[in-house]
Amino acid sequence: MPDNPRRATLATVAASAGVSVATVSKVLNGRSDVAPATRSLVESLLREHEYVPATPRREPCGSVELQFDDDLNAYSTEIVQGAVQAGAEIGVGIVVSINKDPGHSTAWVRDLIAAGRTALIAVTCEQLADQQVAALARARLPLVLIDPLNLQSASVTSVGSTNFAGGLAATRHLLSLGHRRIAYVGGPATAACNQARLHGYRAALEAEGAPVIPGYVWSGQFRYHDGLLGGAAVLDLPTAPTAIFAGCDEVALGVMEAARARGLRIPEDVSVVGYDDTQVARMASPPLTTVRQPLREMGGMALRTALRLAAGERIDSRHVELATELIVRGSTAPVPG
Asked: What PANTHER family does the annotation carry (predicted)?
């Protein structure tokens, strides 16, 4: 990451406090030989200046933080597996954490550095705040986002997948089975990955001359409960869909349960397609047709990219998309009747 020329230094804080650089250093290191009033003043100025110790360029070693901002699920587990496996091959430790509230950006980054992290890989349900990204940049602590819900500034590195192509493939598969009443139950309406899958869905329908029926697009979160709600909403319409494309596998399982609660059989009465190809897709009954998002490969690539940034190497692209693939299983069938 590029240096920020306005980054506060120990000398900056010392000058503001009217003390020596050594005194500021003692406060940072928790030394006891500093007067309480002086300590309080220096700590206040450290926060005011948003001081974060600059970290030198590192060789690929040490540990990398893989941080989530929500509870782990089948999707998260795949990413962890990929990152841990790549770390074992390279000889780098992976520390997995859940941080739903990073609090003050500077203190959050300072804690990462104090723990000896080489880089941060973040999987977030929300967009990182600009202050958090800026604090990481000032500290020269590399950041890589995995499958970001929203692409941030061009300077933020991310690893994702071809979501538009995935949405296109899922919908084309249903169209090939004769379905024309196809609903989409997806994630957050403003999320970039959800928008790309939805655009792929719409593009496939438009190319076939099939309409997007009013009420057939439903947005929630990428969670099982939202699949229950979204599935109920579209299946209770006066003209119910014969097929549903879900924004992720967990949502797809909720949709399937909503269909069963209405006496509908899968795939005889309604076909369902998921997205991600996590373990739950293979364990579903019937096994779920889904778009495989290469989550393990994404975890491994994110780790290797983070280590390249930490070593001061240049990377060819700030955003990498890995290919998706349609996996056909038992949850889809030709249109009924």
From this structure: LACI-RELATED TRANSCRIPTIONAL REPRESSOR (PTHR30146), LACTOSE OPERON REPRESSOR (PTHR30146:SF153)
**What whole-number distance in Å separates Cα of residue 301 and Cα of residue 82?**
9
| Token code pair at residue 201 | 């869905």
Give Cα separations from 95 to 59, 87, 115, 282 (angstroms): 18, 10, 10, 28
Q: What are the structural domains, with CATH classification, of the chain?
A: 10-48 (no CATH), 63-162+295-322 (3.40.50.2300), 163-293 (3.40.50.2300)
Cβ atoms < 10 Å from Cβ of 148: 21
Tokens found for residue 134: 């800026």
Dmax (CA) for the chain in angstroms is: 84
C-beta separation of 194 from 160 below 8 A: no
pTM of the predicted protein model: 0.79
Count CB-CB contacts under 10 A for residue 328: 12
Q: Which tokens belong to 64?
A: 């990398």
